[in-house]
Amino acid sequence: MNQESLTRRDMLLALAFASAAAAIAPHLSAADKPATPKGSTPLHIHPQQELRMGSEQIAILVYPEFTALDALGPHYALAGMMGASVRFVAKTLDLVPCEGSNKGGFCVKPHLTFADCPENLDLLLVPGGLTGTFAAIEDPATLKFLADRGAKAKMVGSVCTGSLVLGAAGLLKGRKATSHWQMLEVLKDCGATPVAERIVFDGKDRVTAAGVSAGIDLGLELVRRYRGDFYAKGMQLLGEYDPQPPFPGGGNPRTADKLAVDMLNTMHAPLVGKFKEVIAKALVK
């Protein structure tokens, strides 16, 4: 997505949200105020407050063969925050191929190199994948970058097996975290406590999301925390995020067809062992 289209979307958001705020503000009462979930940060209620500009510095790591939706799902919501800077960061500025790019997929053009990335980020986010994620865990430069910027960032997060990359960089030790359901137990090898939930916050500086599509939920939840309920509702509606899968419950191993669960577990059993192997090597370096 080029800068022109982002600017156009920002303008549409500003006009639409400002008009909506002006229209509904006189009708809000105390009963309209949503409850603040237990354990979450306080949320702004008044629409004009929730539509405030911001200046968040957000970096999303990309590496060869990362899963595209892991990064682009949260990017859509985060880049819709007016005033926020949401940029892709990689080892170099060369095009980074997404998973499956050799079968007609696409590449992402990074905005920043590791050296250029700001020292103090509001959010550093890591997507997952399979073979590309193994390589990322085995790459000393990637882990060094994550350890350095992650230690200074206000929040560090991941989607899917991106949590295993964070763990290999030493950023999840002693933390609660989630990952793709098949890799949850591998988090123990990183010193983390696995939690089988779609999004897991641990304190104010760590957040992990489950497999692939959970990144969309994560993006909206982060918008909610940065800008409030009303803004996040607008982003969800703008993206028409209203999931209606063909097989309700089929995306969770606890409710999915047992034959499908068994098939994937059989197919991916070697991958669990491979993740444990590369993480063990990374942690002893």
Report on the structure:
The chain is of the alpha/beta class and 285 residues long. It has helices spanning 3-24, 47-50, 68-78, 131-137, 140-152, 162-168, 214-227, 229-238, 258-284, and strands at residues 57-61, 85-90, 96-97, 107-108, 112-113, 123-126, 156-159, 176-177, 193-194, 199-202, 206-209. It is globular and about 50 Å long. It has a 7-stranded mixed sheet with strand order 5-2-1-6-7-11-10, with helices on both faces. The protein has a two-stranded antiparallel sheet with strand order 3-4. The protein contains 9 helices and 11 strands. The protein has one domain (3-14, 44-241, 261-284): Class I glutamine amidotransferase (GATase) domain (Rossmann fold, 3-Layer(aba) Sandwich), CATH 3.40.50. Helix 4 (131-137) packs parallel to helix 6, helix 6 packs parallel to helix 9 (258-284) and helix 7 (214-227) packs antiparallel against helix 8.
